[in-house]
Amino acid sequence: MPAQPFNLGELKFPKKGDAVAYLNVMLHKYDVGDKVNSEDSKILVAALGRHPEGEEKIGCGVESFSVRTADFGTKCFWINRTDGSTEKFAHRACVYGKVRPA
Amino acid sequence: MSLDDLTSWLLKEGINVEVDALTRRTVRTELDNLVEDPEGDAAPIDWSRLLFAGSILARSKERAHQEAALRIATGAVTLGNSQPVNDAGAVLLGKLSNFRAVALANDRNLLEYDLEGRLGLALRMEVQRRQIEQSVLVESSGRWIQVNDFQQRFWENANSHSWLSASAPTASGKTFLVLQWLIDHMRSESTKVAVYLAPTRALVSEIESNLAALLGKAGDMEVSSLPLREKYGAATAGGKKLILVFTQERLHLLANVLGKDVNVDLLIVDEAHKIGDNQRGVILQDAIERVERANSALKVVFISPATQNPEELLADAPVDAKVAAVDSDSPTVIQNLIIAQQAPRKPQLWDLSLRHGEALLPIGRLSLASTPGGVSKKIAFIAAAVGERGGTLVYANKAGQAEEIAALISQLIPPMGGQDEELSELADLARKGVHPNFALASLVEKGVAFHYGNMPSLIRLEVERLFRSGKIRFLVCTSTLIEGVNLSCRTIVVRGPRKGVGHPMEPHDFWNLAGRAGRWGDEFQGNIICIDPDDANAWPTGVPVRSRYPIQRESDAVLESRDGIIGYLGQRLDTPLVEIADTGKYEQVGAYLLATYLRLGSISHASFAKRHSPQTIAELDGRLGAIAGQIEIGPDIAERHPGVSALGLQQLLDALRAYEKDIENLMPAKVESQDSYDRFVTIMRRINENLFPAFQPDGIIPLHALIVVQWLQGYSLAAMIRKNIDYHKKYNKPYKLPQLIRDTMELVEQIARFRAPKYLSAYMDILYLHLREIGREDLIEDDLDIGTQLEFGVSSVTLLSLMELGLSRMTAVTLYEKIARDDLTKESCRAWVAERNAQFEGMDIPAIIVREIREKLLPLAEGDEASSPSQ
């Protein structure tokens, strides 16, 4: 099966793997504790739109994104909601549509 | 025959046999569970001959002669079976200016009433003359206090000199007298602010509470251990005078807060020989010099235990300062060094002999309840047997071993009759303040305890208090005690003592420990029991011969290494720190030299230069000049962070300047915020990479960051331990509770309260410098300095107010759990407590905590007066 192109907002990727790689690079550009800048945040908003649990994750609304510690010493993106609550999400799920890798 | 010849002859030949017999008898009375020796104990003593010899020996200045005189006097008072012999013993004690021993003999009813009335006219006049001569006037109260020779010389010289260095063995009544003098000096002179420096937080809390007790609740001056501006400002503006009790690090924190305003009138440096300690000695030296730079008229008093050269500390006094060294080597209590060796083929029997001079004097045979297998059992069984009557201190090499030995002793000693309320209260505090299964709790109920440096101060101080009062009969401790806790005992039991991790104790450290045997005024004798003296593993160089500390500044020792420090500075510029050997030895002094160079333009202008060869100084100047060429930050910022290299500070600044992302990411987040933990993780990494590898290995950073956040959030130690246990359970990690408790305490003390504040406050200073450079002053917050927040484990106004009122952190945190608001001032905290005073008993707060709350926060009750602290 030929690779299917994948879009995140205005960004277009020839295949899903490229989108994941792009988000990986973005993630690792940040240190844990950093706020995500506004340009990258736009892409993350688009990515969240494609997350299978996107609506619940967004909840009352996104105030900003951070990079913080995930389990087992790794790091991931976190949504900071407008009500002060926070939740992490897996950027792979935004691309592959699965909450956990199969 | 001169007096010297006579006294020497007396000891060697004249009365040596009698003194040996007397010694054997007096020492035997000190030790429990000896196999009986009816014949030896009944041999008659020729008291008049011995007392006559004793009165001659008392006139000699030599320690051995004075010791013999003291032994004769003590023997006559305690063993003499007639009133004239007891009286003569008391007069001899008086000749030795040992007034506390006379008072003790009276307390124990060893002397009949009205000794003076029984003396002949000439002797009575002599006694009275001596009493007048051997006392000092407390000017502020007009009261006379009786002192010994050392104390008298201290008092006179401290009043008449601006730099004084005093040295005397442990149990000479140094601390008691210095505190008396300090208060008197504050009251009668124009001194507004005094700083009392002590090397450990343990000693800081002890001195602070002793001062508070001496001053009483209605104190006419403030005592504080918090490096904050408020009380200092009030004192310098003519308000209540202020005594600050600090470690050297806290003095730097205060100086950082005050900047150019810092002006201390009087500085007392306790345990001043620790200016030679690796890594922290130079921080102490730097603190003294920093305060002196700010006030050239500073008055300084150094105090050290038996040192060889107290005058060394005066070498850097200003040229016009009047200096004096006061030195004493006189014994105040008899100290028996006893060695314990297993009787051949009989592991339950141990032969005890007293070492005096080169010789060994057999004392008797100790009988143990069981056969000891292993080192801990050996120490525990011997201690439990020989020191059964209590006041027994046991030295353990590690905190874990201290717990183990204490548990063994608790099984061997006779049970106490019934429950003691104070011991039960301490057990309750240990259960609620640390963990329900913290071993200390069930041990103290049996009158046994352990003690180490990382314990919360409220618990440690209560352990010490109950040991002094006799309710805790056995105390097993680690090297915290030689790091300067003023705790004396009747008997010390020790086998192969180490200091820190694995290093055999130096003779002067051993004798600083051994010197704690014998509570002057509470006991006539102290005993040091050394187990297995011939075991080369335990005692690689044998049981040390009595010796005194040589004082040498850490900086001077490093400079004397010459090639070592020159080579280090040469490498430091372009070699990553992790690749340089001996960072531990050279980094702190290197930082000090560099800061000095930045301030003066050449270290040849510094006071220490005169102690080293001009070539060494010139070569160092060359190396320092090369480094300074790379440094833009000024001397002021380097001065604020002693022990942190200006080169590291510059490298951190360079890294911040090169940071391309959002500048706000460099800021720590408020501890309540969700980003806080992660921000600390990244900041600690940044510190490791650019400033100094302080949080190593890298994998430990998340744990260190977590501890820092919990500590700043005001978590209690008990809560931190609970969280740690939950974490282990969640991830199925095995753990041992006692170890986990000790590890958590260590992380709090060593990371959250020591390393993190040192490096995080340097980070913040450099970050703020950078923010000003790029015009982002808007990000700079005028909060409490992160170093101070960490040292005290507070981030809310209420918690800080509670600690400013003098509460220990454990009490402050417990109380804060009940207080809803986080913004209470000191007055509001007082009001909150006053309103609820009647309800504390129903709040499930440990009684010791309630007591501290009431002592520190409630207004003065009628009839409350100053009490005597422990001496």
From TrEMBL, chain A:
UniProt superkingdom: Bacteria
Organism expressing this protein natively: Sphingopyxis witflariensis
Protein name: DUF3223 domain-containing protein
UniProtKB/TrEMBL annotation, chain B:
InterPro entries in the record: DEAD/DEAH_box_helicase_dom (IPR011545), Hel308_SKI2-like (IPR050474), Helicase_ATP-bd (IPR014001), Helicase_C-like (IPR001650), P-loop_NTPase (IPR027417)
Keywords, alphabetical: ATP-binding, Helicase, Hydrolase, Nucleotide-binding
Membrane-traversing stretches: none
GO terms of molecular function: ATP binding; helicase activity; hydrolase activity; nucleic acid binding
Family annotation (Gene3D superfamilies): P-loop containing nucleotide triphosphate hydrolases (3.40.50.300)
Domain Helicase C-terminal, first and last residues per copy: 378-565
Domain Helicase ATP-binding: 155-326
PANTHER family: DNA POLYMERASE THETA, PUTATIVE (AFU_ORTHOLOGUE AFUA_1G05260)-RELATED, DNA-DIRECTED DNA POLYMERASE
Protein name: DEAD/DEAH box helicase
Gene source species: Sphingopyxis witflariensis
